[in-house]
Amino acid sequence: MYLPAFPRVAAQFHTDTSAISLSLSSYFVGFAFGQIFYGPLLDRFGRKPPLAVGLMLYIVASLGCVHPHDLHTLVALRFVQALGGCVAQVSAVAMVRDFFPPEQSARIFSLLFLIIGVSPLLAPSVGSLVVVSLGWQWIFVLLAVFAVIILATVLVALPEPHRADRAISLHPAHLFRTYMAVAKQPQFCTYATAGAFSFAGLFSYVAGSPIIFMDGYHVSAQTFGAIFAVLTGGFIAGSQLNLFLLRRFTSARIFSTALTVQVLTGIVFVAGTQLHRLPMPAVLVLFFVFLSCIGLTYPNAAAIALAPFSRNVGSASALLGFVQMGTGAILSTGIGVFGGRAVVLSLASTALVSFAVLQIGRRFLRETVAAGEENDMLVLTH
After folding, report:
1. What is the torsion angle, in degrees rounded to the nearest 10, for the CA atoms of residue 242, residue 257, residue 90 and residue 126?
2. Of 76, 198, 248, 358, whose Cβ has the fewest other Cβ atoms within 10 Å?
3. Per residue in 309-329, pLDDT tens?
4. How many CB atoms lie within 10 A of CB 266?
5. What span, in angstroms and rounded, lies between the C-alpha atoms of 61 and 79?
6. Contact (CB, 8 A) for 228 and 209
7. pTM of structure
8. pLDDT digit string (tens) for 250-264?
């Protein structure tokens, strides 16, 4: 919803859209680091109490973004907003394992990402209407209203899927050991890292698309909303294609094949850009294919990375989210600093790094625990 407002926010603060994208980067940074703190809280206190507290923080920060004093204040408030909102993602990922058996993980993740994908599909269009009709400040009012509705739904309708485990210590040293134990698990390390770099292409697209289309091709806010919706449809299409492919292929094979296509698409994108032979229709097609690949890689990488764990799922999903969001935050910050030239290069480079991590990591895996298996030898104990 916030992306179509970039030019108007930039005009109000007398800067350019690249500088405004830093407020998006600060959100990604807060979203990444916040998950590290929520993971153990979700394991110790259950899912609902930390979820409610985080949503309340999100609501307060959203209202603060309505009238920021200056750009620095907006960037800081967006960071706080993310610290509250990130609990929704880490708890949702953990609750996939709470509510559903492991053999359904990849399929449920695809359905989950369909729901997540509908939001960016509709949000820029809604955001552009709000910007034109009411002003960009009302976007944050609307976000706060949405969060209030979600909070009420959580408190009234969501069953508590995880019993509080008071045996889980919140001492910093113990939390560090827990996260280190998760990170050292070879399968988690390989697929969480490879999946993060593959998924990072989505962050490059989100942060860079206003610069490419609104600054580069000079499209209006309404046209940008339509373009964003169509391209995000690629991500949704990929996640839904994954549901069909999982009937015939393993998550590991789907991830590897989709990642290969993603790498090739990124290379074509960079080559076309360097040769100045990419008209806008070609850019749209390449973005669509690239995002479709992410729709395939992300749910399978998440399912494989979390498969070895039957306890500390909250901590494992938090670390997974931290790696993913942290990688994306770094890339989006680079786009905010270097501008549109960094967008296409980051798409190709992140896909190549993901492919390299997968090939190297596979050499250290004695066997892969499938998303449909339990491995008690890999359960973290205290």
Report:
1. -60
2. 248
3. 766 777 788 888 888 878 877
4. 25
5. 9
6. yes
7. 0.73
8. 889 999 999 999 999
